[in-house]
Amino acid sequence: QICLSLVKLLFYLAHSPLGSIALLDFQPRQFVMVDGNLKVTDMDDASTEELSCKEDNDCTIDFPTKSFPLKCSMAGKCEGINEKRNLFNAYRYFFTYLLPHSAPPALQPLLSDILNATGDLRYGINETLRAFEKVLYLYKSGLYLQKRPLLLKDYISLKGFRTVEGEGHKCWPSYSHLGCLLSIHSAEEAAAICNSQLHCQSFIVTQHRTWTGRPLASFQSSWTDLVPDTNAVVYIKRSASSGERL
């Protein structure tokens, strides 16, 4: 969410009515999340000026670890220097820390492609935004899910109930540091996640949703009693339950 919102912001800056705008003091502290959208808090160091040049050798962007040669346009300006400066700063301050984590395994190669392409400045902002929107579409639609055996049949489902959480069950990544709370596309995906976790015995699908509209599921290593909860459905492994208990 943070990276996509940043890319949308940089897309606007690259195509603003004032021309391409560079954020000269590009630091994480210059941004804040407002209602799920990333915004710039300080525009004092923004500039619409693009570096003047006489030849291509005048158009090199230097960063602490990399340098990139650009073209000198017929108008005597370094082509796209503001856009590319913003994009590489987004890569080194945001993408490298956020993109390798949290995505489902099937989507990680696509995010790695974005990471590598922006790190080498092979992508401009237009291509980067399209790549992010493709990943978002696959994520929201569930098309990233590979065909696999149906596992939900191995669970007993009880609507209108949830389990009283027993032993603490933690996982990575989790929306809660107190347990294992993950977003899912469907209960079938949740069953596959639970089966992949050594100690998972049950999971609860609630009506709480993430910014993409995906429901949240809580995975638990044990369960004791059932309590009414009209907004939840609990799924318990048949091997972990007994007919008498239920």
From TrEMBL:
Residues 1-22 form the signal peptide. The keyword 4Fe-4S does not apply. One of its GO terms (biological process) is skeletal system development. Pfam families: PIP49_C (PF12260). The keyword Kinase applies. One of its GO terms (cellular component) is extracellular region. InterPro entries: FAM69_kinase_dom (IPR022049), PKDCC (IPR042983). Residues 2-116 form the FAM69 protein-kinase domain. PANTHER family: PROTEIN KINASE DOMAIN-CONTAINING PROTEIN. This is PKDCC kinase. It comes from Agelaius phoeniceus. The gene is Pkdcc_1.
